Amino acid sequence: MAFPNRYDRNKMALSPEECEELAGKRIAVVGCGGLGGLVIEALTRIGVGHLRVIDDDVFEESNLNRQLLCTEAALGREKALVAAERIAAINGEVEADPVVAYLDEGNAGDLLRDVDCVVDCLDNLEARFWMAHACQNLGLPLVYGAIAGWFGQVCTVYPGDLSFVSIYGEPFESGGESQHKKLGNLPFTAYSISSFQAAEAVKVVLGKPGQVRNRLLMVDLLDGSVDDMELQ
């Protein structure tokens, strides 16, 4: 190991065996923007061994207010490729697998195959439903997160869970666009929800208790509240 003390502070909260186990795990992060860039940062630093980062978009000026991977020099560049460069710069022991593609009905199964967990950092409902559908078919746990203005929510969905339907209704019947387009996105909201998502992903791949499953964690940073709602 080039940096033998890299994970010393991890070991205050995770066992040495768990740290070793993380190095063998594969996680897909779908979306490398406001939530995704921060999730990628956290999972890279904690030592997840393989990260597949999926996004077909490029950085634009409106991303500068909150997206960790977006710098003035990165404007116009593919988000997934910038994410892979960031991973390499932080932790050479993490294998980055950048995929410049839009997840849809036709490719979702192939894009998410051969990983241990999927983290949903998308901003549109159609791709979100295709991703959830693919995870059900592949038997993969999915960590969901979304933000809008001062508000965010997160939960973990295992195959067979009905969490997505509880939140959004039946696939493709809701017809609405994501609320962030109406309420905007603030940097601290993305930072808060992405932290919950990264923590959930680590708990999932290590089999740790306390996962936000069959319930929805709702965070309101404007009034400083966190609510926990059971999903039916």
Q: Can you walk through the features of this model?
A:
The chain has 232 residues and is α/β, with parallel strands linked by helices. The protein has one domain: NAD(P)-binding Rossmann-like Domain (Rossmann fold, 3-Layer(aba) Sandwich), CATH 3.40.50. It has eight helices and eight strands; from the N terminus they run αβαβαβαβαββαααββ. Strands 3-2-1-4-5-6-7-8 form an eight-stranded mixed β-sheet, with helices on both faces. A hairpin with a 2-residue loop joins β5 and β6. The chain is globular and about 50 Å long. The model has no long low-confidence stretch (mean pLDDT 94).
CATH superfamily: NAD(P)-binding Rossmann-like Domain
Shape annotation: globular
How many separate helices?
A: 8
Average pLDDT reading: 94
Count of beta strands: 8
Summed up, what is this model?
The chain is 35% helix and 19% strand. The chain is α/β, with parallel strands linked by helices.
Show the helix and strand layout:
Layout: H1 16-22, E1 26-30, H2 34-46, E2 50-54, H3 79-90, E3 95-99, H4 108-112, E4 117-120, H5 125-138, E5 142-148, E6 151-157, H6 163-168, H7 180-183, H8 187-206, E7 215-220, E8 225-230
Parallel strand pairs: 1-2, 1-4, 2-3, 4-5
Antiparallel strand pairs: 5-6, 6-7, 7-8
Helix pairs in contact: 2-3, 2-8
